Amino acid sequence: MTLLTSVLRGTVQEIPPIWFMRQAGRYLPEYRDLRANAGGFLDLCYTPEKAARVTLQPIDRYDLDAAILFADILLVPQALGMDLWFEPGEGPRLAPALAEGDAAVLFEQRDIHDRLGPIYETVSRVRAALPQEKALIGFAGAPWTVATYMLAGGSVKDPAGLRAVVYDDRERFAAIIDVLTDATIDYLKKQVDAGAEVIQLFDSWAGGLPEALFDQFCVAPVARIAAALRAHADIPVIGFPRGSGPLYRKIAALPDIAAVSIDTGMPADWAAEALSPLAVVQGGLDPLLIVKGGTEMLKAADQLRASFEGRPFVFNVGHGLVPQTPPENVAALVNHVRGR
Ligand code: CP3
C-alpha cells in the first residue's frame, strides 16, 4: 500500500501525502518541449510513450506521492463518436453541440476501447516505471461536467446556465447522462485493470446547480460509477464536485466514495467539521498562491494542514495548477509540507 492509498483508507499521517491537480502541463518547460515536438495536445494523449513521459515529468522533478494519468476528460465523448479538437487560445470544441444537434451519434453501438486503448497502455507503462511507494491515479470527468461540454460544443462561461436546456427535455438529457455514465464505468474499469490504484472523478462544473438537479445529475451518476468500481476492484474513489458548497456533503456521504477534493472557495474548518466525518478530505490550497509563492504560500499551507490535524488529509490544490506557476514555487511548497 502507498502513503496515498493508506490515507485514502482513513489512516492519519503526520505528514500528509501530496500531489497536485494538473501537476503535469504547460507550466513545466520539459512539457512545453515535448509538446512542441508532438502533433498537438491530443496526439500527446493518444501516444502512450509520450503520455507516459509527461505523466512522469513532475515525479522526476518533485517528491510527490502520486502520479496522475496524463489525458483529458473529453476523450470519452470523442470515443462515443463526437468530434473533438482544441482551438488554439480558445480551448476544447466538441461537435455536434448537443444543445441544438442530434444526439443519435451517442446511441450507436460502438466499442469505446478501440479509441481509448492507448490510454490503458499509458497507464500500464506509467505503473511499470513508477516507484513502488508512489500511487498512480486514473481519472475521468463526472458525467454532468462532461455533458456541459457536449451540450455547448465546448467551454461556456456559465455551465450551470445550461439547465435551461436540461429543463427543456429532461428525459433526453437523462438518457445522455446514462450513456456517459456507462461509458465512464467501462473506461475506468480498464484503467484499473491496467494499473490505476486510485480514481478521481472531476466534476468541475458541479457548482451553481439547484439541489434537485445536483441530486439527479451529479450525485446519482457519481454514486453509480463509484459502486461499479467498488464491485470491480476495491480501489479508493475521490469525488471533486467543485463549487458545490454544502452539497459536497452528499458526495462525501456516498458509501463508495473514499474522499472528496475541496475547492479553493471552501472554508477548510467547515470541511473538517462537515466532511471529514463522512470521507477523507483532499485539497484545497489556492493554486494562485503557488504563482505568488513565498511566505504567504507557505503560511496558507500550514493553516490548511492545521485545519485537518488529527484527521486523514491529502495535500492538494483547490483547482489545477495554472500555466504561469513557477516550478520552483511548487518545489518549495513540497519541501515545506515535507518538513524540509
Ligand atoms: O491533472 C493532471 O495533470 C492530469 C491531466 C488532466 C488534463 N486535463 C490535462 C490537460 C486532467 C485531469 C484534465 C481534466 C480536465 N480537462 C478537466 C477537469 C479539471 C479542471 O481543470 O477543471 C476539464 C474541464 C478539461 C477540459 C479541458 N482540457 C480544458 C478546459 C482544457 C484547457 C484548454 C486550454 O487551452 O487551456 C484542456 C486541455 C488540457 N488538458 C491541457 C492539459 C495539460 C492543456 C493542453 C495544452 O495546451 O498543452
TrEMBL record:
<dbReference type="GO" id="GO:0019353">
    <property type="term" value="P:protoporphyrinogen IX biosynthetic process from glutamate"/>
</dbReference>
<dbReference type="GO" id="GO:0005829">
    <property type="term" value="C:cytosol"/>
</dbReference>
<dbReference type="InterPro" id="IPR038071">
    <property type="entry name" value="UROD/MetE-like_sf"/>
</dbReference>
<keyword id="KW-0627">Porphyrin biosynthesis</keyword>
<feature type="site" description="Transition state stabilizer">
    <location>
        <position position="72"/>
    </location>
</feature>
<feature type="binding site">
    <location>
        <position position="149"/>
    </location>
    <ligand>
        <name>substrate</name>
    </ligand>
</feature>
<feature type="domain" description="Uroporphyrinogen decarboxylase (URO-D)">
    <location>
        <begin position="137"/>
        <end position="153"/>
    </location>
</feature>
<dbReference type="GO" id="GO:0004853">
    <property type="term" value="F:uroporphyrinogen decarboxylase activity"/>
</dbReference>
<dbReference type="InterPro" id="IPR000257">
    <property type="entry name" value="Uroporphyrinogen_deCOase"/>
</dbReference>
<protein>
    <recommendedName>
        <fullName>Uroporphyrinogen decarboxylase</fullName>
        <ecNumber>4.1.1.37</ecNumber>
    </recommendedName>
</protein>
<feature type="binding site">
    <location>
        <position position="204"/>
    </location>
    <ligand>
        <name>substrate</name>
    </ligand>
</feature>
<comment type="subunit">
    <text>Homodimer.</text>
</comment>
<dbReference type="InterPro" id="IPR006361">
    <property type="entry name" value="Uroporphyrinogen_deCO2ase_HemE"/>
</dbReference>
<dbReference type="Pfam" id="PF01208">
    <property type="entry name" value="URO-D"/>
</dbReference>
<keyword id="KW-0456">Lyase</keyword>
<comment type="function">
    <text>Catalyzes the decarboxylation of four acetate groups of uroporphyrinogen-III to yield coproporphyrinogen-III.</text>
</comment>
<feature type="binding site">
    <location>
        <position position="72"/>
    </location>
    <ligand>
        <name>substrate</name>
    </ligand>
</feature>
<keyword id="KW-0210">Decarboxylase</keyword>
<comment type="similarity">
    <text>Belongs to the uroporphyrinogen decarboxylase family.</text>
</comment>
<feature type="domain" description="Uroporphyrinogen decarboxylase (URO-D)">
    <location>
        <begin position="17"/>
        <end position="26"/>
    </location>
</feature>
<feature type="binding site">
    <location>
        <begin position="22"/>
        <end position="26"/>
    </location>
    <ligand>
        <name>substrate</name>
    </ligand>
</feature>
<feature type="binding site">
    <location>
        <position position="319"/>
    </location>
    <ligand>
        <name>substrate</name>
    </ligand>
</feature>
<comment type="pathway">
    <text>Porphyrin-containing compound metabolism; protoporphyrin-IX biosynthesis; coproporphyrinogen-III from 5-aminolevulinate: step 4/4.</text>
</comment>
<keyword id="KW-0963">Cytoplasm</keyword>
